[in-house]
Amino acid sequence: MEPILANVGLAILGIAAGLLGGVIDFGTTIILMPPLVYLYGSLPTIPIIAIVATIANLSRVLIWWQSIDWRVCGIYSITAIPAVILGANTLVLLNQILIELILGVFLLALIPIRRWMRKQNMQIQYWQMGVVGAGIGYLTGIVATTGAINTPFFLAFGLTKGAYLGTEAASSLSIFITKGIVFHQLGVINWTLITQGLFLGGCVFIGSLLSKRVVLRMPEERFIQLMEWVIAISGISILTMSALTR
C-alpha cells in the first residue's frame, strides 16, 4: 500500500475512532490496532498505540476536567504506574508470534469478560481501585489496550457520564505516559513510530472534540453492542494476519 494512501486511511479511521472512543470511553485503540499491526508488525504497534492512547485520554481529560474525581485517579495511578513498568519489561521478552496471539485472544476474551462483569452489578471502594490499578497496569504493559476492562470498575464505583469519562481518562493517562517512557528506555520505539503515533493521536484528538456533543444524546447500549462487533473483528483480524504471515 502507498504510504500516502495508508496515512489518509489511518487519518480517517483515527478521527472516527476518536469520536467513538470519546462517547463510550473505549474502542479508539482497538479500531486502530489491526491496520497498524498490518503496516508495522505487532511489537511496534504497541508503542504507537501507547502514544495514541496518551493523546486520546488527554483530550478527554481536557473536555471533562471539572467532573474528574482526582482521588480515584490518584489511588488507581499509585499502583498502576509500577505495574505497567513491570508489564512493559515482560513484553519485550516475548516473541513476535506470541505477542500477536496474546493481542488477538485478549481482544476476543474481552467480550465475555465485560458481559460477565456488567451482570455482577459490582460496587467497589477506594482501596479496591488500587487493586484494579495494579492488575490493569500490568496487563496494559503487555497488551495494547485495556480500556474495555477498565470500564465496569469505574462504573461500579458510581461514576457516570462526564465524571466517568474524565476520571477513567485521567487514570489511564498516567499508565500510557509511563508506558511510553519505558518503551523509549527499552529501545523499542524510534522517531518513525513516534511520528506515526503523534499523527494518529492528532486525528483521534479531533474525533474526541466532536464527541462531547453526542455523549448525552446517544444510547450507550447501542454503542456497546457495536463495540463488541469491533472488538471481535479486530481480534480475528490480528489472529488471521498472524497465521498468514508465519
Layout: helices, strands, pairs:
Layout: H1 3-24, H2 28-40, H3 42-63, H4 70-91, H5 96-119, H6 126-142, H7 147-156, H8 161-186, H9 191-211, H10 220-244
Verbal overview:
- Helix 5 (96-119) runs parallel beside helix 7 (147-156).
- With 246 residues, the chain is mostly helical.
- It starts with a helix and ends with a helix.
- The chain has one domain.
- 82% of the residues lie in helices and 0% in strands.
- The relative contact order is 0.22.
Calculate the terminal CA-CA distance, rounded to whole Å: 20 Å
Structural class: mainly alpha
| Number of beta strands | 0
**Helix percent band:** over 70%
The radius of gyration is 17 Å
Strand coverage percent: under 5%
Number of folding domains?
Answer: 1
List the keywords.
single chain, 246 residues, mainly alpha
Quick recap:
This protein has 246 residues and is mainly α. The chain contains ten helices and no strands.
